[in-house]
UniProtKB/TrEMBL annotation:
Keyword Cell inner membrane listed: no
The protein's name in its UniProt record: Polyprenyltransferase
Superkingdom to which the source organism belongs: Bacteria
Any GO molecular function: transferase activity, transferring alkyl or aryl (other than methyl) groups
Signal peptide, first to last residue: none
Record bears the keyword Coiled coil: no
Amino acid sequence: MRPANIVTSVADVLAGIAIAGYFSHLTFTANSFYPVLLLCLSTIGLYGGGIVFNDVFDAELDKVERPERAIPSGLVSLKEATFLGAFLLLWGIGFAFSYSNHAGALAAGVAFFALLYNKVSKHYPFVGPLNMGLCRGLNLLLGISIAVPMLEHFYYLAVVPIIYIFSITMISQGEVHGGNKRNLYIGGVLYAIVICAITFFAINQAQPAAIAFLLPFAWMIYRPLANAIKNPIGPNIGKAVKAGVISLILMDAAWAAAFGAIWAAVFIACLLPVSMRFAKVFAVT
């Protein structure tokens, strides 16, 4: 289920909730936090289920390339993994629909594109990264759907996580056998576009505090990427991918800060050590 990655999906939803302005009017009561909890539980199921099905569809290939994974190593049977993945996806969709039809439709979209990626599109160099990016883009919109009218105003922001995840997925294509520098350079350029986009919104919203999260975000993603460009072998690329995934938390914190939800940004950033701790125990890629 990649627990470290699941933490980043929760950060996506919290960032979306911050963009929607929900935290600005939040009262510290159980009723106020109930919608936040529902959407966070939804994304946990969606991401966990998507990752499980990634291993289900790759079971035969993983016998050769990733024998340490749960299914090829014999820790979990293919049937058990399939049941778990289906349960988690239905969990995610169910919790979203329990909040609103808009959230449920977005959750169903995430589940659909996750399965499409795992079964079909991951085998295509351009469509695969784009498909994976769509999952993250919809996940951000899932958070924004906490205030449905805000979806009409900020739906286009989904493009930014799409670009970011597209770049990570492109980089990851050389993780097993090593990669070419061209993909790594393209990934670096796409990273820069993402940073510039969030900076633009921070300036537009007069929220310079977002820079406090963007700077460590840039450092975390570019340092391992530079090492991978210098020596594009599998382990170096793997470290760049791992850093790119976990750094999503700082990107999400920057989003929250760019829309004025500073305390929410700080809370999201505090998820980083949690994700990093999980990453020491469980696989990220």
